[in-house]
Write a structure and sequence with these properties.
Elements (H helix, E strand, L loop, with lengths): L4 E6 L6 H10 L3 E6 H6 L9 E4 L13 H20 L3 E5 L1 H9 L14 E4 L7 E9 L12 E8 L3 E4 L2 H9 L3 E7 L2 E5 L13 E5 L5 E4 L27 H13 L6
Parallel strand pairs: 1-2, 1-3, 3-4, 4-12
Antiparallel strand pairs: 5-8, 6-7, 6-9, 9-10, 9-11, 11-12
Helix pairs in contact: 3-4
Length: 267
Amino acid sequence: MTNVKAMVLRSAGTNCDLETVEAFEAAGAEVALVHLNELSREPARLEDFQILAIAGGFSYGDYVAAGRVFGIELRHRLQRELSAHVARGGLALGICNGFQILVELGLLQAPSSAPEERAFALTDNASARFECRWVTLRSEACAVPWLVPGELMPVPIAHAEGRFVVRDEATLAALEAGGQIALRYVDPAAPNTTAVYPANPNGSVAGIAGLCDPTGRVLGLMPHPERNLHPWQHPQWTRRGARAEGEGLPFYRRMVEFAADATLTPA
């Protein structure tokens, strides 16, 4: 057990919260599962945590658009506290629906940008259907200090609105130049190239599966590393040889280890 405290945030429709709690506990963190209403009543609680994670699921039934209602709720209730958390050195992670919420909040943009000026979005899968399958991610050289560039990670996805799109080529170039492209979908048989369907399950531009903010302290990704903590969770686990743990667990462990060594600036 480290001295790292992680908050997993949930609301109506969140359904991956317990898996996310398990992931952070297995990684050595002390974890609190907190409802949005609880945090809204006591926003100062966030100051006690080094990590904030927004779990996956279908918050508020994904009415209007995926993550839209939860994002609006957070923006109106806790935008100042969330921004302060990142500014003082705290980490934030959004998984699947949590990634959609981070995009809605504008936390993945440059600090000077306003949410209405957003130049990228997560929209309907190019296949026009819900995709539930295993994919392979490749970590990119990016601003996130605890990701290992070039590392491959098999993980499952389960979403209908996970296609990452940009306003124009200039936006994509700026994300690349700023080290914000954190994870890409790749074909495990050809991991040095950007994948096409089904290895890129949603048609995301440039195979982008995960994005970080310019500081590297906020990370969002569509796949679910918390669903690959144990060797037997992989559908071909009996063919992959002896493994002590699933490939998703080091993802969380390194995040917790980085948070343990990071210095937070008091609010």
